[in-house]
Amino acid sequence: MIYLKSENEIELMRASAQLVSRTHAEIARHVKPGVETGKLDQIAEDYIKKENARPAFKGYGHRNNRFPATLCMSVNEQVVHGFPGEYKLQEGDIVSIDCGVEKDGYFGDSAYTYVVGECDDETMALLKTTMESLYLGIDQAIHGNKIGDISHAIQNHCESNGYGVVRDLVGHGLGRALHEEPSVPNFGKPGRGKRLRSGMTLAIEPMINMGTWKVKTLKDGWTIVTADGSNSAHYEHDVVVREGKAEILSTFEYIEEITKIHIDQNLKYG
Ligand code: MG
Ligand code: MG
């Protein structure tokens, strides 16, 4: 069942997506060499609670193995669902931070791959292509298109640049639940899949590897890593399907005001 949202519901979703975006900005100030990933998690949790919202990932999952933290924090070859902890970020690392909140009954969910200090040009190119693919996918999220149009735009851009598109994890509908129908794969054929309708709300989130698309899960049951140990990038926005042009509810502007790195514009630091 796909739930179309009313404009009132979309306003609530915008508030949740904006809170996630502002939480990212709080974290962005502290993404530096030497910072423990667990400290970033605490900053995010404190901020979300202060805003009268709930971290959506903490406690998510099955009873015998719930996700333990507010943020998914995935360093270098970790793709998604990494645990924050005692690891200290190092110069040249990349860290994909995924944040979800529930506020007033609606969810926001957005991910951004940060550069710790400066990374090499090859890694920066991976980040740039991944972010570009996100926006190319969003361009397809218009009334009358199909899910496969989003999927294909992402896959085509990333694979034509030589990168691996993760198959095992996909984007999703979003609203009163963190994960709603439909699934939004980052690979697929144009014109295939469910038809998009105005008022559908989607989390579009390419997960793109420098090398092979293949991934594996670590023993903790959560952390996904690339099978070949190459770096991986992840950007995610919450969008509303509209006539003619999708509307993006989340934003990376607050992050990039702080980092001064505009990933989709420059290979070099801005
Ligand atoms: Mg997410
Ligand atoms: Mg998501």
Tags for this entry?
270 residues; alpha+beta; Creatine Amidinohydrolase; five-stranded antiparallel β-sheet; four-stranded antiparallel β-sheet; 5 helices; 15 strands; 28% helix; binds magnesium ion
Terminal CA distance: 44 Å
- Give helix and strand order, one letter per element, not per position: HHEEEEEHHEEEEEEEEEEH
Helical residue percent band: 25-40%
Shape: globular
Summed up, the domain count is 1
**How would you characterize the largest beta sheet?**
5 strands, antiparallel
What is the name of the CATH superfamily?
Creatinase/methionine aminopeptidase superfamily
Strand order of the largest sheet: 8-7-9-14-15
Please tell me about this protein's structure.
The mean pLDDT is 96. It contains five helices and 15 strands. It starts with 6 loop residues before the first helix and ends in an 11-residue tail after the last helix. The chain has 270 residues and is of the alpha+beta class. Bound molecules: magnesium ion (2 copies). One magnesium ion binds next to loops.
